[in-house]
Amino acid sequence: MSDFRDHLAEELKDGEFRKEWEERRPKYEMISALIALRGAHKLSQAEVAKRAGTTQTLISQIERGTANPSIGTMDRIAKVFGRRVHISFV
User: Fold this and answer.
1) 88 φ, ψ (degrees, to nearest 5)
2) pTM for this structure?
């Protein structure tokens, strides 16, 4: 993972890249959190989907960043892990 972080640190020196990264940061953080929780709970995408009342395809799309799930969907997914969604404006 340090190779990625080193590469990212280098890329973030570019102002245009930094701007794009910051605009997408909340989505990347959500994806990272979902993947980490799923791994920590040792659940497959299919099991998370079943417990959240959705499809494995949607969980996969969320993790790949190709879906824009509703807050309600993310709340149902969070509940699978005994969590809740927290949104703030900064």
Assistant:
1) -140, 155
2) 0.82
